[in-house]
Structure formats: structure tokens, C-alpha cells
Design brief:
alpha+beta, 4-stranded mixed beta sheet, elongated
Amino acid sequence: MCDVLQLAKSTFYYEAVKRPKNDELTKVIVEIFHKNRKAYGTRKLKVKLMERGFTVSRRRIGRIMKDQGLVSTYTIAQYKPHKTSCNEAKTTNVLDRKFDQSETKRFVVSDLTYVAVRNKWHYICVLIDLFNREIIGYSAGKGSNVCSRLSMSVIGMANPAFIIWS
């Protein structure tokens, strides 16, 4: 008979795996989705479907969700950095990239560096005099306010027209 129909013998013996109909699968997906506060995406839905005995790919689940208009709600990010505009400070640029200075302790620049030590952040703040590139003060510690503490202690030994530039 396979010779007459020009089919391979394996086709006659092949038993197709019965796939669940989309109607039944769609009902189950919608039920799970709404039962879990509309928070489940394709990955979690696939796990729940596997628990109920359905073997379905994530892409198929995604297509069914798209057809049904199901969109999962997302959790709010824990940290959102605030965008600040660069060089839009209210203070004027007094230094104007003139790093060669003729007066000692007139302009002092600071640098704050953080280093991971035993999986914790430690901060190092250095104050440098632009006149002779000498380190006039430094501070290190676990808190990020090391630079402000150092600045306050150095202000007493400076010129009256002393400017700290970060």
C-alpha cells in the first residue's frame, strides 16, 4: 500500500504525538496568568504548565500571550540613577583649565577614589596643591564623606582666597 501511495514505510508506523489544542492551552495560560496577579511571564508560565503536564515552548506561550493581549507587570527597579547635566553647576569656572599656578595653596584640587577591600567599599580622598603638585592632605575611610571631612580640616591652613576644585 505504501508503494502505491509513494510513501515511506516509516510514515505508516509513525504515531504523531498529540499536541494540546490551543483552545485548551489558552484557557490554562489565561487562568494561571490572572491567578498570579498578572505578574508571570513566559518563563514562570512554562514552569507552571510543566507542573500541570503541558510541554510547551516559551515562544509558543509568548505567541498565545500576545494573541490574548496578556502583558506581565514588571517590578519597579530598586535603584534609579538621577541624571544630572554635565558642567551645568551654578558656580563659575574660575580655574578655566589653567593648571599651572604661580601662588601656593591658591587652587587645591581633590580626587575621591573608591577601592573594594574584602567585598566592602573604602574611600580615599586626596587634596593636591596645583602650584607644586604636592599632596597637602588625604583621608581614607569606609564612608563616602571622607572628602568633606578632609576639606573642612584643610580650610584652616589655606589662603583667605583659597579655592577647592573637585
